[in-house]
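In response to the reviewer comment on reproducibility (Comment 2.3), we provide here a single inverse folding case reported in full, input and output, so that an independent group could reproduce the run without further information from us. The structure tokens appear first.
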């Protein structure tokens, strides 16, 4: 672990949705930084299994869990705490997320509710579990919610997704006030449009339009976002809380 993130030897961080995309990139970086990392997703991937084989189950813990199902969230969280051991959980990164596209007038309610359950309600319940644990331990802690610029800007066809991310940013601000005095920081990290599986449904025309509107002239990559999470988890970010950090190549300026 480098000096900037020298919180404690092998501090334990839970990153939800780590089987691919941004979550997997977060895991790689946090392992490299010396953290012990736990993750969960509904299914595993060969890439994630390869990380377990490389780093060993003492450094990387994986669980199957359907976020949005309260009982599964609680069971997974309990297993993660057990794996963390006496040092407890230092960081929680609410990264798991889903999307679904269609104008609200015709978008099925059941799909909107599912998006809100996974992206917002699941993150809220895990934050509650995380902060109860951190408060009981009486040690500094970090909660980072992976939001999106869509939460503050909106996007045609993404009403439920936008509502879920705006909700996450509100959650961040309220929780930061609730637990700041106990040394726990809560922040949102809001990427712009990234080149991951989630954005693979964008039509070529939409992609080009986004690129044209981005001052830095390209879509983001996971490598653009990873260092910002590293910073938010680090000791150096101890006076940053209640913020939504936008990393979007300037498209929202
Ligand atoms: P992704 O490639 O689709 O990966 C999503 C991850 O979340 C996977 O590991 C997935 O695994 C897991 N997941 C989804 N639903 C879950 C559930 N109900 N329970 C547990 N795990 C679940 O997405 P990504 O692009 O890496 O996005 C990660 C985060 O960044 C999301 O919160 C997203 O909103 C945000 N973000 C992405 C972009 C972008 O352009 N990609 C931009 C801004 C913000 P399973 O499917 O196996 O469950």
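Designed residues, in position order:
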């Amino acid at each position: 672990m480098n000096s900037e993130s020298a919180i404690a030897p092998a501090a334990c961080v839970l990153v939800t949705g780590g089987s691919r995309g941004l979550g997997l990139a977060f895991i790689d970086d946090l392992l490299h930084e010396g953290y012990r990392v736990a993750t969960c997703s509904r299914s595993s991937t060969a890439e994630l299994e390869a990380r377990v084989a490389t780093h060993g189950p003492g450094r990387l813990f994986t669980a199957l869990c359907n976020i949005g199902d309260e009982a599964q969230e609680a069971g997974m969280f309990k297993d993660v705490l057990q794996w963390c051991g006496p040092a407890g959980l230092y960081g929680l990164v609410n990264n798991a997320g889903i999307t679904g596209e269609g104008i609200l007038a015709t978008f099925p309610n059941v799909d909107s509710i599912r998006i809100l359950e996974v992206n917002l309600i699941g993150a809220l319940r895990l934050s509650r579990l995380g902060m109860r644990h951190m408060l009981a331990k009486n040690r500094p802690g970090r909660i980072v919610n992976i939001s999106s610029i869509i939460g503050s800007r909106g996007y045609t066809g993404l009403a439920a997704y936008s509502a879920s991310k705006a909700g996450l940013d509100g959650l961040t601000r309220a929780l930061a006030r609730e637990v700041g005095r106990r040394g726990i920081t809560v922040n949102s990290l809001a990427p712009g449009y990234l080149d991951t599986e989630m954005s693979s449904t964008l039509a070529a025309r939409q992609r080009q339009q986004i690129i044209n509107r981005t001052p830095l002239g390209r879509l983001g990559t996971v490598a653009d976002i990873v260092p910002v999470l590293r910073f938010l988890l680090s000791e150096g970010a101890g006076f940053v809380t209640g913020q939504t950090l936008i990393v979007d190549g300037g498209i929202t300026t």
